[in-house]
Amino acid sequence: MGARPYSSLWLVLIVLFMVTLSNVVEGYSRLRPQDCSPRCTYRCSATSHKKPCMFFCLKCCATCLCVPPGTYGNKQTCPCYNNWKTKEGSPKCP
């Protein structure tokens, strides 16, 4: 009978952890349009082709409201950004 309050406490803690985790993950994916410029500036900071990178990153961000974390890769965190292709079938978003 005494173990029941502890299992309820654990359940509450697990739910709170999951809500917090989902908010962190969503923070990477859903942006407001005004958040695109700083995210794209960082995303394109490691390339030598900054102008085209920024152009396409801003375009992709405005459409998808998402920019993957880091300067390269991690596109799986933003499915729209990852799956948007050019007419030739290559990735549109940097």
From TrEMBL:
Family: Belongs to the GASA family.
Name recorded for this polypeptide: Protein RSI-1
Keyword Signal: yes
Record field: transmembrane: none
Signal peptide: 1-27
Organism: Buddleja alternifolia
Swiss-Prot/TrEMBL keywords: Signal
Lineage, top ranks: Eukaryota, Viridiplantae, Streptophyta, Embryophyta, Tracheophyta
InterPro entries for this protein: GASA
PANTHER family: EXTENSIN, PROLINE-RICH PROTEIN, GIBBERELLIN-REGULATED PROTEIN 5
Short name of one Pfam family: GASA
